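Priority: medium. Attachment 1 of 2:
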């Protein structure tokens, strides 16, 4: 799926995460306890297990996406993401489909670059 490691500023790599799901009908969300306001950050995730016909999305949000009770956070959450079904989503709408799915055993990566003008997110 592309590069597995991209150099990033050391301070950008110091992220801690925790799982949070506030709505019993919602979807589990992993949140960073730190904000990324400048610089760049590359993160990759190893998909240890994703049941067949399941749905997972990785991305970033400018609002409290963990409060969403929908499978894809709506426009009020300022969200961009890549789903396990090979779709790219922005502000609650599918903008690109037909990309590569990710499954159990895959590694998925994201490069967030806030130094670019405008900022960019690249999925690997």
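Attachment 2 of 2:
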């Amino acid at each position: 799926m592309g590069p597995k490691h991209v150099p990033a500023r050391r301070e950008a790599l110091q992220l801690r995460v925790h799982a949070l799901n506030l709505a019993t009908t919602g979807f589990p969300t992993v949140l960073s306890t730190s904000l990324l306001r400048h610089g760049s950050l590359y993160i990759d995730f190893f998909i240890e297990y994703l049941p067949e016909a399941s749905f997972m999305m990785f991305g970033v949000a400018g609002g409290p996406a963990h409060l969403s009770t929908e499978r894809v956070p709506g426009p009020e959450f300022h969200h961009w993401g890549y789903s396990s079904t090979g779709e790219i989503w922005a502000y609650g709408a599918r903008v690109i489909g037909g990309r590569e799915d990710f499954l159990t055993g895959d590694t998925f990566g994201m490069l967030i670059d806030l130094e670019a003008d405008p900022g960019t997110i690249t999925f690997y």
